[in-house]
Write a structure and sequence with these properties.
Length: about 90
Amino acid sequence: MSGIQEIEGRLADIPHLGYGTSMSGATAEIVEVCEALPEEKRSEVIDFARFLLSQVDEHRWESLISDTKPRPRLEEFLKASAQEADEALDHAKL
């Protein structure tokens, strides 16, 4: 079994990733490139991929934060939280 087939099998066993029985061409190419690299370079590729993923998540959060649609439950929570800051801490509620 090739390295790609082994990885495809492992990914297929993880249901939340949504992988089918075969990976995309780009994913297969990344696997092939990584297999050709020395271990320390593979780690750098993984670190860079994680960095790119964090940027996607950051962009998504920025989009959510800048969205102007009303959020009444959030507004209510923020008002209640602001009022609690003026009250003494009740250790019984902890």
